[in-house]
Structures
1.
Amino acid sequence: MNRFVVFLRAVNVSGKNLIKMAELKNILGKHGFQNVQTYIQSGNILLNSDLDKEQVRQKVEDLIQTHFQLAVTAFAYDEAELQKAYDSNPFSADLPGNRVFITFLSEEPQQELRDSLEPQAYLPEEFQVKGRHSYFHLPNGAAQAKLSNAFFEKKLQVKATGRNVNTVRQLLNLLQQTN
């Protein structure tokens, strides 16, 4: 049995794609997932399954479509993958964890799209794209930021969901506690 973190894209944000996490937790448990936990209301799920991560991702999406009538993109990571994404953060650990973000991308973006981004155009905000992740630092917070998950989706032509490093760190802690 493998332990996974599943991120849901754009749920419970600004009154859209509303999913009660307690209800989702019950549905997932009734459909074969074990030790289901949710963390905060923004679509973070920890669960055990004998399925591989692609099957987990697809089954979660299908269950949400069936039970909530919502087409929500899910991203599934095992502990090693999530730890690698966290460890690959290019920004200093001294920066506030609520101002540094990891965006999980549905696929590795095309090189020409990555090359078309001009990091200096967004200063003082900073970002780097590495494989299937983008990392960005918002020194002035997210309220007026140019960089966001939507920015990376549009520019890189992929689906994306992001979490600040505080949330990712907490999910890694929860994974380690349940192993």
2.
Amino acid sequence: MHVFHVALLNIMNNAGVGTPSGPCDWLNVEDYKSMLAVNLNGVIDVTLSVLQLIKKAKGRVVNVASVFGRISPFGGPYCVSKYGVEAFNDSLRLNVAPFGVKVLCIEPGFFKTSMSDTAVLKSNMKKLWDRLPQETKDDYGPAFLDIMLEQMDERSRQFTDGDLMKVVSCMEHAISALHPRYRYSPGWDAKFFWLPLSYMPSCLVDRFFLRYTPHPKVSVL
């Protein structure tokens, strides 16, 4: 689903597809294409279709990306698509600044939405596992899927924020404030965990993620 809002010659892009997501070698190129078509290409398509009007009106473009456009703690096309939105947002901001157009980016953390529904995410993970060739299943081992599903429940309890008004407030400020911020990061996890982690050296970030994610053929972490 791609949702956008145009009012007073401002545009807000909010594309929301979170599955299929899983380890990169559980996926195929069609999985990437289907998500990129919505999360990235949809944002670009809608923006370019009205950009000339936005320029004439000196309006605003607000793109909803994700904190996972800044750091990639899991495999699959979601982070790829959100990194793409970030790149499009940054280049567009510079391109249209001389026309008086403001381009803003919202980078939410984990919030309680249909995209973060663990039942949906776990169902997706099971479907990906079921279609894997036996050789790949053997690489990971029989316990890997169960451990991953358990950790998804745990991560949801740790990070998911139920107050969507934090995101809505950022959207409102980006659209209406006289001096909007270039980037908004709603959610305590985005501000105090994911974004600080994204500035750390890659070797430390990798070590952290590898410590707290299941390993192939390892049943006890």
3.
Amino acid sequence: MGNYPEHELLQDGQASSAGTSLSPAEIEALVAERFPRKAYCTVEDWLILHVDEPAESLARVRATGLEPMFMYSHCVIYDGHGRFPPGGWVRSTLCKSFDGVCLFETRNTIYVLVGQGREMKASLKTIFGLC
């Protein structure tokens, strides 16, 4: 994994067994079946970031139908809408759903997590400081 700007991430990171090893064609078919009207972006070297904030802040996020989680990746493989260049980084908006394996949904995009990544808790300051 790459170098992170905040020591907090290095201390709290835990290996995750999530991620897929499907081929690009299999990924395209999976997303088309599960989320037929959404753009998707495949990423590797990824982090699932669980927001570490007071319970009342987390409850406000959940009240909007979202989960207090973000996805960050050091390496975009493919973006169906061309927003993120291959090899670039991306940080998602708040999570709408996560299947616990490889499909991380936001309001506008499905992020397909390729290979093994990490999950950790992080403050919003740390999350928004990643680039």
4.
Amino acid sequence: MNNRSKISELIGVVSHYLKEELRPELDGRHAFLTLVASNLLDSLARETVSGDEAALGEHARLRQLLGVEGNIDELNAELCRRINRGELNENSQDLMAHLSATTLDRLAIEQPTYEAYGRERGI
């Protein structure tokens, strides 16, 4: 087990405690905020394991789509400029494939139980 997996597992233990043991003992606002904290920890655990891979995929797709080099922030800024100028739009299959893949990667980390994500991934 690598370091990121260990960190993710420890975060999961804390999340489980908050959600399954502490939250049922609380009422109202505190129960809700405990659930929010647990969900944030779950997202952080997934980010720890999958975030770098998702970012690398996004970076590679942007470099290919735009045909230029740069860091991910620079490339996203360039992508926005090209969309604003009308050089890329919803008719660009490469753009739509990039946006779809990037969105699905983010949903896998931030909202893996989202119904449309599950349908798209065949879950």
